[in-house]
Amino acid sequence: MQHLTEEQLVAHYYHDADAVTAEAHLATCEECRAQLATLRSVLALIDQLPIPEKNGAYGEEVWTRLRWKLGSERRRSRVWGTISAIAAALALAFIGGMLWHAGTQQSSPAAVAAKNTPSPAAAAQTASNSSSVVSRDRLLLVVVSDHLDSSERILLELSNADAKHPLDITSESRRAGELVASNRIYRQTAARRGETRIASLLSDLEPVLLELSHAGSTLSPDEIASLQKRIDSKGLLFKVRVVSAQVNGQDGVTKAPPKGMDSL
Amino acid sequence: MTTDLAVVSRARSGDPEAFRMLVESHSRATFRVAYRMTGNEHDADDVVQETFLRAYRQLRHFEERADFGTWLHRIAVNCSLDLLRARSRADKQYGGDPESAELAGAAGARSEAQQDRLMISAELKTQVATAMKRLSASERTAFILRHFEGMPVEEIGKTLGIQVSATKHTIFRAVRKLRESLEPFVRSTPCNT
Prior knowledge:
The complex is a heterodimer of chains A (264) and B (193). Chain A is mainly α. Chain A contains ten helices and two strands. In chain A, α8 (196-213) crosses α10. The longest helix of chain A is centred in the first third of the chain and has 49 residues, at 58-106. Chain A is elongated and about 95 Å long. The termini of chain A are far apart. Chain B has a domain at 1-96: Orthogonal Bundle (Rna Polymerase Sigma Factor, Chain: A). Chain B has helices spanning 2-12, 16-38, 41-58, 68-94, 99-113, 122-133, 137-147, 153-160, 164-182. Chain B is elongated and about 55 Å long. Chains A and B meet through α1, α3 and α4 of A and α2, α3, α5, α6 and α9 of B.
């Protein structure tokens, strides 16, 4: 008589084999029945492998640890939402500009006439240019405002961190890395446009973001203390809040384009 | 679960309180899956965290007709698998199995605390834990998914990225190793099949 192989017994145990054939053999073979019984006993031992019992407060503990990370996730998704909205606005502005440019080329005789004779059309065009500069100016304010908002949250988390224990900054470090690149662009743009206050603040902010982006996933208590000292000594959090409030204030009002703000 | 459906719906629309309720009600079940898969309490805690983080990111892809617990269960299995694979790579790189002694010790410690509730001795529990630890990452995963989770072989194959025949063989290898380790501890039982 050919006995069931070990593999067939395992497959039979898990109902992964031809049950009829195996059952027929087992009905007549005591040796295979004994093998199957041993297998069952071994696997029954595995079933009794203890699992540490977590008490009713475990869910709450998990949530407490998770909440901080989820906060970072939400903020990151909000930043990405804003970036997408800005990208969409830029795309629309670009397409609008192209259409406007094509329109002016098609009506070139009128444009020539307008150039030779000051007229309401020329005045409208000047107004349109001015409005375009204001729009770009607003765009800078919107992106800087959001940038400062994100930076402020990171600074706040660092300032409030307990410097006695290591701090998991995996998501903060990643966000800081994303902010470093945009910080550089906004700083240069603000400097070109003569927005010295914004440029100066972004210049102070950049080394902190850079350090954080290179810090890895965990900050040691010493590193936390050092960063907190830097943030405090420069009054960085306070400056961010003040400039952020001013930027938000400017963003809400239509104002004449500041000098030099034509190259964003 | 009707309750879950309503809460999931709120969580999907960005209500953090609803997500907190889901975390609190599913944490213990998720831990049990994670512990079986990883065999280590600390790793299981990490897997639970990672599972809920992934669930949060993927919440919008969750089909409300599906059962939230089952969906979460799959995420936990995948997170455990990722951890076991990473551990396996590290073991290959650095050699040895430095956690065995720690695990055995931990299992022994746990057994003392739970002695009155458990049917097997502390020594035997240690042997079971050690036997499970002897399995490779893929053997352990395939075995756990088949034995504890009752997952069909085809689906285990998909999860592990291997053919059905290879999956069956992996489960078989796992069972054989366990049998080799634990058969001496099994008292002979009468055949009753």
